[in-house]
Amino acid sequence: MPYKVKLKLKLTRRRSAGFTLIELLVAITILAIVAVLGWRGLDSIVRARQALNAEMAQTRGIQLAFAQMENDCAHLMDAVMLPGRSVLNAAGNKLVLIRSVFEDGQPVRYQVVAYSVVEGALGRRELPPRREITALERDWEGAVGDTDGARVITLQTGVNSIAMRTWKQGETGWRVGGNDVQNPGGQTPQNPAFPPTPAGPKTEKLSGLEVSLQVKGRDAPMIKVFLLGAS
């Protein structure tokens, strides 16, 4: 066999025996690129899932806070029972109200409840149920002035601010804040805890409350409207 043919056969066998260094480097580079692209895609999916879970948890927390507010507003004390006084005050970053408490085997009692946003957290605190008007007035003043000492239960964190508007019967629009002062000097229903006073002029009471929470990470506030004294 000619020498040139033998040499050509040897070169062909060597080339078919394995990959060259350049071929290996190219393959490794391609695999690295694919791995980086796959890692980035997986990382973006994980981040999106975490953000979605956090948003869902935040929405669920706000919904639970609104549900508690709705329950308190539905049991709002009838303002005619406290002539010349307020049973709901929505001002600044605080909502204070007096709600009725119904328990089996117990007479109807009344309880001061306060909501406020402090250091990015929406909190609720409630004072003991009362039957005496003097104790109820003392609790009200303490809640308004933040001197009641009641334990604060955090309903939701990441709340930047709270804004409230009220709807009063006989009016045609929302008003910022507001309170529910009924019967200044007017007659109250017969109730042993709240003695009647001489008859006098009667004002229209509040019938609706709008609460707007500006939550961290959301462009638009979360808004809920409640009926007052619905139950």
UniProtKB/TrEMBL annotation:
<keyword id="KW-0812">Transmembrane</keyword>
<keyword id="KW-1133">Transmembrane helix</keyword>
<keyword id="KW-0488">Methylation</keyword>
<keyword id="KW-0472">Membrane</keyword>
<feature type="transmembrane region" description="Helical">
    <location>
        <begin position="21"/>
        <end position="42"/>
    </location>
</feature>
<dbReference type="Pfam" id="PF07963">
    <property type="entry name" value="N_methyl"/>
</dbReference>
<feature type="compositionally biased region" description="Polar residues">
    <location>
        <begin position="180"/>
        <end position="191"/>
    </location>
</feature>
<dbReference type="InterPro" id="IPR012902">
    <property type="entry name" value="N_methyl_site"/>
</dbReference>
<keyword id="KW-0997">Cell inner membrane</keyword>
<dbReference type="InterPro" id="IPR051621">
    <property type="entry name" value="T2SS_protein_J"/>
</dbReference>
<protein>
    <submittedName>
        <fullName>Prepilin-type N-terminal cleavage/methylation domain-containing protein</fullName>
    </submittedName>
</protein>
<dbReference type="InterPro" id="IPR045584">
    <property type="entry name" value="Pilin-like"/>
</dbReference>
<keyword id="KW-1003">Cell membrane</keyword>
<feature type="region of interest" description="Disordered">
    <location>
        <begin position="178"/>
        <end position="204"/>
    </location>
</feature>
